[in-house]
């Protein structure tokens, strides 16, 4: 399916670029692990293209073009693009899922901020839950309830990332904390950027994110039993490794400004062992009724786009709108430079 040289490139990209997923992927069966590594390599490339490049608008527009080429069957002549194109063809990957990721990255390029926790979850659905839904596709899982729980896990992971990176984001003049939380605490965004401190109020916000993430981690577990048996340890592994970052933040008093929460090799090994044990237990335990909980409103569109029988959709009006806005901004920047 994926050319061996392209697959090796993707393995190396994840080995160095996403330590948590690389560790968890070791527990996936090979027929899922390889396409999953290729998927994460493409997503990692997309994220880095926007996060690490100076001209974020141009980066998003290039990603749009690369996705168009992938779905046209003419991927860019690069290992990650060729590997992702092979996945799209083999697994009939719904276009709405990578488009959702692209929309989240476009929001980053537009420097969007979020007024409420629901807005933060809207963002998390795009940059994380969309990847969880794509992982389900790679496992040949299109059940709506299992997809909803995978999306819970994606939102939980992204909330953990946001909680961990409050200080680093502030140094880059980025804010993902809900603005209404800041307003309640009497904190002005520009003042926070100028002098980010781990005050009691800020640590309280980090705690709220960690607590909400923990609630969703617990809810997501009900969906793991709906996955193929061989895939369960790897997904449990990802769940425990990311939740471990939240536990580390708790031990640090929710101060994600003075230091960065990190986990070590031995902790990861312990969580992977726990994942193996829990996966074995899930084979004999009855299904939890939590499996059938309604999807978060913010991820419903992902479930609808992926579930069995979902119609193949074209690029959404919302995505077209934000890309058009970025295109206009790019043209204005060029005119300013040449004028």
TrEMBL record:
Pathway: Carotenoid biosynthesis; phytoene biosynthesis. One of its GO terms (biological process) is carotenoid biosynthetic process. InterPro entries: Isoprenoid_synthase_dom_sf (IPR008949), Squ/phyt_synthse (IPR002060), Squalene/phytoene_synthase_CS (IPR019845), Trans_IPPS_bact-type (IPR044843), Trans_IPPS_HH (IPR033904). Gene3D superfamilies: Farnesyl Diphosphate Synthase. NCBIfam families: PhytnSynCrtBRhod (NF045921). Its EC number is 2.5.1.32. Belongs to the phytoene/squalene synthase family. Keywords: Carotenoid biosynthesis, Plasmid, Transferase. This is Phytoene synthase CrtB. It holds the Pfam family SQS_PSY. One of its GO terms (molecular function) is squalene synthase [NAD(P)H] activity.
């Amino acid at each position: 399916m994926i050319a061996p040289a392209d697959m090796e490139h993707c393995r190396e990209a994840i080995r160095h670029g996403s330590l948590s997923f690389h560790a968890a992927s070791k527990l996936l069966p090979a027929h899922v692990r390889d396409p999953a590594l290729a998927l994460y390599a493409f997503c990692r490339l997309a994220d880095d293209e926007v996060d690490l490049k100076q001209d974020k608008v141009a980066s998003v527009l290039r990603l749009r073009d690369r996705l168009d080429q992938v779905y046209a069957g003419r991927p860019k002549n690069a290992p990650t693009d060729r590997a992702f194109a092979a996945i799209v063809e083999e697994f009939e990957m719904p276009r709405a899922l990578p488009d959702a990721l692209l929309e989240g990255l476009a929001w980053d390029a537009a420097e969007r901020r979020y007024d409420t926790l629901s807005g933060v979850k809207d963002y998390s659905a795009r940059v994380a839950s969309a990847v969880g839904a794509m992982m389900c596709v790679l496992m040949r899982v299109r059940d709506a309830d299992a997809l909803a729980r995978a999306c819970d896990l994606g939102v939980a992971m992204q909330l953990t990332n946001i909680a961990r990176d409050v200080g680093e984001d502030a140094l880059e003049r980025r804010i993902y904390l809900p603005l209404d939380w800041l307003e309640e605490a009497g904190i002005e965004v520009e003042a926070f950027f100028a002098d980010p401190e781990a005050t009691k109020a800020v640590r309280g916000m980090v705690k709220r994110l960690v607590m909400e993430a923990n609630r969703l981690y617990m809810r997501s577990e009900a969906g793991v039993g709906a996955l193929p048996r061989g895939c369960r340890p790897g997904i449990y592994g990802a769940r425990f490794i990311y939740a471990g970052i939240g536990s580390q933040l708790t031990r640090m008093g929710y101060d994600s400004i003075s230091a960065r929460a990190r986990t070590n090799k031995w902790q990861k090994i312990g969580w992977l062992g726990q994942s193996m044990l829990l996966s074995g237990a899930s084979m004999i335990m009855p299904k939890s009724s939590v499996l059938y909980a309604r999807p978060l409103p913010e991820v419903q569109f992902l479930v609808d786009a992926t579930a069995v029988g979902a119609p193949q959709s074209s690029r959404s009006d919302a995505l077209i709108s934000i890309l058009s806005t970025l295109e206009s901004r790019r043209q204005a920047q060029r005119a300013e430079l040449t004028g």
